[in-house]
């Protein structure tokens, strides 16, 4: 599995959030509330979008509970928080060490990539999950309906003890 390790700096984000679980996935609702008003955010840094997940402390795939609640953000990076439209919230993505994987395919094929990362790659790597945000970077090649869509999956890691 191809991947790279990156040290991500802290990032200022503006977006919308919802609490959900894997069984009560509200991702379409979240992005449906974000995208029509995204143009109101004037101080963006580029056009890449971020799908950020803040899982409960201790999250891991081996003890995965599909009913556990987590917070998901639809967001974009900004230069500062000076001009945040009322419809949006601010968030600071902490940054740190990440393993970065490329997912090519539709959103429905995402589960296979997710399992390859957490069942195959992570246990055999020199890393363990860190209790920070997970996110997908949705760049210019991303399209949630295109089978050739591309996105980056950023997994927070730290070296094993």
Question: What this model shows, in words?
Answer:
The chain is 14% helix and 42% strand. The chain is mostly beta strands and 161 residues long. Strands 1, 2, 3, 4, 5, 6, 7, 8 and 9 form a nine-stranded antiparallel β-sheet that branches. The longest helix has 15 residues, at 110-124. The chain starts with a strand and ends with a strand. The model has no long low-confidence stretch (mean pLDDT 92).
| Cα shape | globular
Low-confidence stretches at least 5 residues in length (pLDDT < 50)?
A: none
Give me the secondary-structure category. Answer: mainly beta
Distance between the termini: 23 Å
The overall strand count is 9
Helix content: 10-25%
Radius of gyration: 16 Å
Average pLDDT, rounded to a whole number, is 92
Beta fraction? 35-45%
- Discrete helix count: 2
Largest sheet: 9 strands, antiparallel
Order of helices and strands: EEHEEEEHEEE
